[in-house]
């Protein structure tokens, strides 16, 4: 966990804790996954609307927005993001048949949270937290095979 105490700190921290597939059906070679992601922010941080975009081989398949809010100092705020995937965009990809045959489906997500950090209730700084994740799902077991996330904070 990161705590924000001075202007020299690295700022709020965003992490992807879990991805859960709530529905994943294969009907007439059409899948309908609905992944959800839990993210935690740690900082004295007031933020605007959040955005999470989901990509399949570089093509945007859906985007979700979250409401604005405030994460108090030294506290964790959990944000649940649910994305209903537009399967037409996934199935129409030339890579879909290959992925289906391999039993693995790789998707990437990009989350952006921008806002203002208050330091000692005196100093205000604009902060943008970005996170890129790549997740590989096993189609038959509906489990995550591999996940990698990178976080970037811009003060």
TrEMBL record:
<protein>
    <submittedName>
        <fullName>Uncharacterized protein</fullName>
    </submittedName>
</protein>
């Amino acid at each position: 966990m990161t705590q924000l105490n001075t202007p020299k700190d690295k700022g709020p921290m965003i992490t992807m804790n879990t991805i859960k597939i709530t529905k994943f059906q294969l009907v007439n070679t059409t899948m309908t996954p609905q992944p959800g992601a839990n993210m935690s922010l740690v900082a004295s941080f007031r933020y605007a609307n959040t955005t999470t975009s989901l990509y399949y081989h570089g093509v945007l398949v859906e985007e979700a927005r979250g409401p604005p809010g405030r994460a108090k100092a030294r506290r964790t705020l959990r944000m649940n993001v649910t994305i209903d995937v537009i399967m037409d965009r996934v199935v129409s990809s030339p890579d879909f048949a290959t992925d289906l045959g391999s039993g693995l489906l790789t998707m990437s997500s990009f989350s952006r949270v921008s806002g203002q950090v208050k330091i000692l209730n005196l100093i205000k700084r604009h902060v943008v937290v970005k996170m890129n994740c790549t997740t590989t799902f096993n189609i038959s077991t509906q489990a995550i095979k591999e996940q990698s996330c990178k976080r970037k904070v811009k003060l």
